[in-house]
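User: Predict structure, ligand S-adenosylmethionine.
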Amino acid sequence: MAAYEFNAPRLFLDIPMREGTRHTLDRAQANYLLSVLRRAAGEPVLVFNGRDGEWRAEIAPTGRKAADLVLTAQTRPQTPPGDLHYLFAPLKAARLDYVAQKAVEMGASLIQPVVTRRTQGDRIKLDKLHANAIEAAEQCGILALPEIRDAAPLAEAVAGLAPERLLVFCDEDAPVADPVAALRQAAAMHGGPGHGPGNDPLPLAVVIGPEGGFTPEERTLIGDRRNTVRLSLGPRILRADTAAVAVLALVQAVLGDGR
Ligand code: SAM
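Assistant: Predicted complex:
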């Protein structure tokens, strides 16, 4: 196992990872390494494909703006992702990208856009969600890419959650109480904070409403689900993307298992 190179750039490459593999970078990747980061021949790059752990590779320039990477050794074995499903109503494009990146950085193993009565489902561009998830994975150092699902009606997505999965329902109408205590109490009823049976990560899900909020029927649908904890994020009405970051940070801090 090679030593981890903390300040080496990271790239997601969907290629088999073996010692000696030589891979030709596309123009954008070569430009990023050679021109933007101004890396030189022989300098390390960390690469991962989401399946085979992380590998150290060395830059082998093949022209002024072209380069290959030669894989030299694995730096980290593949580790399983956490178990956090992130359900959110589509937002305006720029904020959707932002929310997707923050969800990945804070441990989402699955991203599920949900269509509610007050959102337009056509806002979801899956290829953009994928690209944002990969960019966030490269930046934050995770090895397993999250699963990205196509937009689904809210009722279908909630019904599709496994019964043992604890759903954190961000509800601005929930009583403003201590969210940490509320999360800890809900988790304690489901296998202990951060650990389900057999030290697996506690199966979690988070659901955030759209700019226009959930309808009363949707709130009943979510709130009536057995393993759901309604959580207030404080007395102010947060934008959906602010609420996303707030609740993901809270869940990661209180229940996260560090994956
Ligand atoms: N009902 C809000 C209003 O009256 O403006 C609109 C929804 S808010 C902009 C978007 C979503 O963020 C909500 O559906 C909820 O999931 C979440 N949210 C916002 N503020 C919150 C808070 N204080 N506590 C918990 N969730 C909140």
